[in-house]
Amino acid sequence: MTFELFSTSFCGACAQTRASLDRVAGLVPAVRVAETDVAADPDRAEAAGIDATPTVIVRSATGEQVFRASGVPTVDQLLQAAVLAMDGAATR
Fold this sequence. Notes:
Helices cover 41% and strands 25% of the residues. By secondary structure, it is an alpha+beta fold.
């Protein structure tokens, strides 16, 4: 499963979100975190419908979006998203 973080270098909330994602990745080995700086890659951000940073999108192993959060998600929310992503992979 992939946790996508859309961020900017000047975003303080992005640093908090990055720390939460690092914690979840440490707890759930299947989590892969991919970060996109929206200033450096605006086309990717636009294609993903990003209108605020930070935004986290969680995708199952099949690429299906199972969770999206604008702002700083909690570790509990991210762990629940990991379960959703795993459940999505298990039903396919």
